[in-house]
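Can you give me the bound-state structure? Components:
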Amino acid sequence: MPAAKIYYDSDADLSAVEGKHYVFLGFGNQGAAQAQNLRDSGIPNDKILIANREDHYAEDAKSKGFTVEHDFSKAAAVADVLFLLIPDQVQPRVFNTQFAPNLKESVTIVIASGYNVFYKLLNFSPKQDVVMAAPRMIGSSVRTLYVKGSGFPCFVSVEQDGTGNAHAISLAIARLIGATKTGAIASSAREETAMDLFAEQALWPTIIMAFREAFSVLKEAGCSDEALVYEMWMSREPAEIFERAADEGFIEQLKHHSPTSQFGQLSGALSLDGKSTKEWFQHILHNQACVLNGKFCKEFSKIEDDLEKEGPENPLNELYRRSEASELGQAEKRVRQRLAESAAKSS
Ligand code: NDP
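Here's the bound-state model for the whole set.
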């Protein structure tokens, strides 16, 4: 694979989006941040419209000086650029029924996550542009980093080039929201979805399992719940390690640890060949969970409505119940309760 292209402000020509009207569907986490960044990049307020139901998100947009439209068909009709910034699970229903029938043929649709496009759940017309500007961080950081003038990491791509100018438009949009300041990485909905779902279904489960089993082995060896909970995560040491990894490098950060720790970590990691873990990861990506072949998406859509339910009918509640019943879950509950009781006594 060749190295990915990285785009900077100087690669993005704002004339590609001159005079366009911007509609943000959603003023939540990403919507509020990206709309404010776009305005602060020089787009006049009367060229920006927030499409939102009548509630606290709409009130927030108004309080920040934006014009809000509650009628989605009216909002769709004026959009030259539509930012799709509502949760992924509601996008197909809202976009396909309330936006798609009313959009201009030449509109550019901007997605912030690849999922619905990669699995072909959104109905675009062939002449429309579909581009991705997917920040790698939460909305509040997208905003604060923009305000600081430092930009934020982001993936960009063209998923459908209906007008023939989608590439130039995608870079101009990325620049307006502040994504090309530190470099926007060329990616794709496929790559973004694969990495996201892989992290969720393979990498983090492996880390959770490693913590769970480490807890169990150390407890068997006589360590107390209190000491373990602090040692393993409540001291925030893992968070600091990842902070330093982001700043200095995944391996380089080890040099902040004691020589004993460095020796243990490096020699221990090198002695594990990772073969079975790699096979497991490949299985998740290609076979079992079928991240790439769409089977996961089909299976997940069958239970999606159940995730709104209360009580045991919601499959997430059952997964929480089982996870909280684990040795680690029970121990942490006891330790947190004890700490809360002592804090209450001393206050
Ligand atoms: P939020 O959960 O913050 O979205 C809330 C917004 O969506 C509100 O404006 C809400 O308004 C609206 N909304 C929710 N349900 C509906 C509905 N049924 N009909 C119409 N509007 C609805 O979303 P995020 O900002 O977290 O995510 C937006 C996109 O950004 C997603 O594609 C996500 O994957 C992507 N993304 C998110 C990141 C994050 O950190 N959160 C990071 C990078 C990308 P109301 O309820 O009033 O209708």
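A couple of observations. The pocket of NDP is lined by residues 26-31, 52-53, 55, 57, 85-88, 90, 94, 112-113, 134-135, 138-139 (CB under 6 Å). Residues 6-187 form a domain with the Rossmann fold fold (CATH 3.40.50.720).
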